[in-house]
Amino acid sequence: MKMIIAVVQDKDSNRLSEALVKENIRATKLASTGGFLKSGNTTFLIGVRDDQVDSVLKLVKENCQSRKQMMAPMSSMGGNADSYVPYPVEVEVGGATVFILPIDRFEQF
Ligand code: 2BA
């Protein structure tokens, strides 16, 4: 078994959950915050059999798109005067950041 952890943009999270439910894949959605932009994103925990990993990755790819986002001036460059950026910076936020971890043991009670 594998645990797929996928960080996706909030705008894509409903579409992805619907696609997972439709394919009968169980998942947990967590409200999360990006460390860099400090804005909300969604983290999915998806526990699946090894042979389901590729189809889940396909669903994530199909339902999550990358977008450009503006970072407000000085919102995350360290917060001191030396690193102050007086203009908004455009950042490309990926469709999904995905981690795939082995599961040692799975139990449900
Ligand atoms: P954030 O940390 O808010 O990052 C949003 C986007 O800002 C990133 O998109 C990247 O394009 C840019 N960015 C992040 N750190 C940067 C830096 N130090 N310098 C310049 N630009 C930077 P993505 O890479 O697609 O990441 C989207 C979200 O996925 C991240 O939101 C974070 O919540 C998560 N993430 C990405 N890489 C991760 C990692 N290695 N571990 C844990 N979470 C990660």
TrEMBL record:
InterPro entries in the record: CdAMP_rec (IPR010375), N-reg_PII-like_a/b (IPR011322), N-reg_PII/ATP_PRibTrfase_C (IPR015867)
Lineage top rank: taxon: Bacteria
UniProt signal peptide: none
PANTHER family cross-referenced by the UniProt entry: CYCLIC DI-AMP RECEPTOR A
Name under which the protein is recorded: Uncharacterized protein YaaQ
Organism: Melghirimyces algeriensis
Taxonomic lineage of the native organism: Bacteria, Bacillati, Bacillota, Bacilli, Bacillales
